[in-house]
Amino acid sequence: MRELIKGIGNQIQEAIKIGSSARFSIPEKEIRAVIVCGLGGSGIGGRIISLLVNEELKVPFILSNDYSIPACVDEHTLLIASSYSGNTEETLYAVKEGKKRGAEIVVITSGGELLEMAQQYGWNHLVVPKGQQPRAMLVYSIVQQIYILNAYRLISSKEMDCLANVPDFLVRQRDMIHAEALRIAKFLHQKTPVIYSGSFFEGIAIRFRQQLNENAKVLCWNHVLPEMTHNELVGWAGGSDAFAVVYVKTDFDHPRTNYRWDIVKEIISKKTAYVTEIRAKGTDRLTQNFYLIHLTDWISIYLSELKQVDAIEVNIIGHLKTEMGKRK
Ligand code: F6R
Fold first, then answer.
1. Is the CB of residue 83 below 6 angstroms from any atom belonging to ligand 1?
2. Phi then psi for 54, rounded to 5 degrees?
3. Which pLDDT score is estimated for 111?
4. 40 C-alpha to center of ligand 1: Å?
5. Ligand 1, atom 9: nearest CA belongs to which residue?
6. Own/partner pairs for 234-241, CB < 8 Å, 24+ apart?
């Protein structure tokens, strides 16, 4: 896992090559909505992208992390099916339903039944390198979605232009990222992490939580501002020493949300001293997303090492998939 995380710059470059050499066949019909269907490490890219492009995309962007798709999905919907293995049953159910409705389907996968279906039905598909843990291949899912949205003329090439600079940027930040990741891993050790971010970076906070779950084998939760200021904040009334609070700050919150941050910090600081902050770096939203993905991946690795658990294995997920396979 360390090697894969270290290789984020190469992954971005390889993913750019896959995206830029893809030959999409684009239908004449108008696309009126986008849905990304995917689970876990293959679903989170959709959430990150939906928040990244929401100031530019003119059509609704919805997510399905389940077997079903909403009733609005029809032949004018671009359905992006993202499954690294190509065999995740929820994604396959969703895609089959999308096919029945005549949706425009594009596949991101390394193989499996999803790739077979894409080849059989002539859907546009992007094949990513196989043989890794899906969550370690998030970069491919994000980059391919940018290329897909651009190919369908739903977004400009702005994000693609920013992408090219991200690998060098991350190299320049390397020492700082490692020092910061180790500091935060030590801070989280033996506590339950509670992650707060602005809502534009909810995908990143969820990814952070998922990496802590799967790599470091811990329970934790996340919530976003401004929403948490209307409910969860009250939960701090009694205080608790069990939690380690991490604020994920970026330059892209609404100015009034920044006032909320100040007040939230003031309130929580009266309930626990166990609080720290991560500051995103980079001049644009895409770079700040990648910076945070990389930093929080390293936090999960350092925490797994402090806990002396194997970051790679997810035997519990494997067990669950095997058991589900027995129930037809
Ligand atoms: C494992 C992981 C999981 C999978 C999920 C869906 O590393 O991250 O969350 O991503 O079980 O499987 P795929 O990605 O094959 O569709």
1. yes
2. -70, -10
3. 97
4. 5
5. 40
6. 236/267, 236/268, 236/271, 236/272, 237/271, 238/271, 239/270, 239/271, 239/272, 240/271, 240/272, 241/272, 241/274
Nearest CA to ligand 1 atom 16: 83
Active site residue ranges = 214, 230, 321
User: Which residue's CA is the nearest one to ligand 1's atom 12?
Assistant: 88
Phi, psi of 115 (to 5 degrees): -65, -40
DSSP reduced 3-state for 302: helix
pLDDT for res 1: 87
Q: Rounded CA gap, 131 and 214, in Å?
A: 18
Q: Summarize pLDDT for 64-116 with one digit per residue, the tens.
A: 999 999 999 999 999 999 999 999 999 999 999 999 999 999 999 999 999 99
Ligand 1 neighbour 41 (Cβ under 6 A) = yes
**Which CATH number is associated with domain 2-163?**
3.40.50.10490
Global pTM reads 0.96
Which residues belong to CATH 3.40.50.10490 in the chain?
A: 2-163, 166-307
Residue 16 zone, left/alpha/beta (φ > 0; ψ -120 to 50; rest): alpha
In the structure encoding, which two tokens stand for residue 223, read together? 């919530």
Backbone angles phi, psi at 241, to 5 degrees: -95, 0
H helix intervals, the chain: 2-6, 8-21, 40-52, 89-100, 112-121, 138-151, 158-163, 166-188, 202-214, 232-235, 255-269, 285-307, 315-326
The ligand 1 atom nearest the CA atom of 136: 7
The predicted pLDDT at position 233 comes to 97
Q: What is the pLDDT of residue 328?
A: 82
Quote the CA–CA distance of 278 and 248 in Å, as a whole number.
5
Residue 88, ligand 1, Cβ within 6 A: yes
Is 166-307 a domain of CATH 3.90.1300.10?
A: no
Pick out the chain residues at pLDDT < 50.
Answer: none
